[in-house]
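Journal club prep, shared notes

We agreed each person brings one worked example of a sequence with its structure written out as tokens. Mine is AraC family transcriptional regulator. I'm keeping it raw so we can talk through how to read the token line rather than staring at a rendered picture. Sequence first:
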Amino acid sequence: MITNELVTQSIDYIVQHLDEGISIEDVADYCHLSKYYFSRVFKAETGESMYAFIKRLRMEQSAFRLKVEKDKSITGIGYDYGYSPSNYSSVFKKHNNISPVQFRNGKYAECVTNPFYQDKLVKFQSFEEYGKQIHIQQMNDFVVIYERHIGNYIELKKKWRDFIEKYKEHLKEDTLLIERSYADPSVASIDQCLYDICITVDKNCSFDNVTTIQGGKFAVYRFDGQVQDIFPAFQGLFNVWLANSCYEMDKRYGLDIYRTINWKSMQVVMDLCIPIKAHERK
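Then the structure, token by token:
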């Protein structure tokens, strides 16, 4: 868990400005610290240098866009993250062991391997089947207590149990359990996934680790099944529905909102929420 508030704030800044050519100096200035001092603090807290972290997130985010923004050129996506065509291809291949062209062509298959259960092949539904189960909704902001983690999603059950125990006095009948995901495990290392676990609270809550998750327009898919099948559902939504729909994701990140959880069987009902732009893609 990331406990340093300045590091948490710096990660918020980084994920919101990945496509704006940010530097280590920019992040340190944002936190009002010298880049040398803050670089040490950042690595001590995350286990990764700030330079490596920014580079990795750029590669992960650009890879995600390659598979869902079919009408955007590979060159254009590379430019968005400050790379020339040849440099982007070289850096991408070094990071992913595959070229951007090969990656994009391979991500529109009918199935993918589940990185958490490598013996399971994930087969997608059709665009029409996903579309029948998706509703476009306008959501209000969520005020939440949160913890930020870098790790494997497999660890979520224990993280949630500990988190709920820590804040059990703040649980009410209408409390929502929310995950905010910054990483797609089909393109990120499964041991380096960045995510928040949150519970909704009153806006007057005075804890230091309280933040507001921005609401807005979301494509919402109701999932009812085993936790191990959440990954296949999300991948189908991204690879099939979003990639072929008239919608685009915006700079907000995806949310999982739990409706019911059976901790013993790990059967859940949850809303998988994809943030989309207010206007449709042309």
